[in-house]
Design brief:
Helix content is about 30%, strand content about 20%. It is an alpha+beta fold.
Length: about 110
């Protein structure tokens, strides 16, 4: 992940240039290995289907990705090199600016 809102426990790399995440939000920028693409895409499709059927935000793609993050290797580059532009969020129904939230990857909730 080139960007993400890490809000879970993580494992820091030996050199401090990335962390292994288990509960990282946002879907701003990914690099996905070819062998993993189908797994990720199937998860996204399932997320959309569940969200359309239920309307429940627990099925938003960034939240639904936590299933994969907790069982597979998902890494967030540190320092974060991409940010979401301040703009209207369909999920939150208001204008949001996550830049400062994204910078702080050490928060755990």
């Amino acid at each position: 992940m080139l960007s993400g809102n890490n809000m879970g426990e993580f494992i820091e790399s030996e050199f401090g240039d990335y962390i292994k995440v288990s509960r990282c939000f946002t879907t701003g920028a990914y690099i996905i290995k070819k062998h993993y693409y189908k797994t990720w895409l199937d998860n996204m499709k399932e997320s959309v289907k569940q969200l359309e059927q239920s309307g429940d935000n627990q099925f938003c793609c960034d939240v639904y990705n936590h299933r994969l993050q907790q069982k597979d290797n998902w890494f967030l580059i540190i320092p974060i090199c991409c940010y979401q532009k301040e703009d209207y969020s369909d999920i939150e129904k208001k204008v949001v600016d996550y830049k400062n939230v994204l910078i702080d990857y050490k928060k755990i909730y």
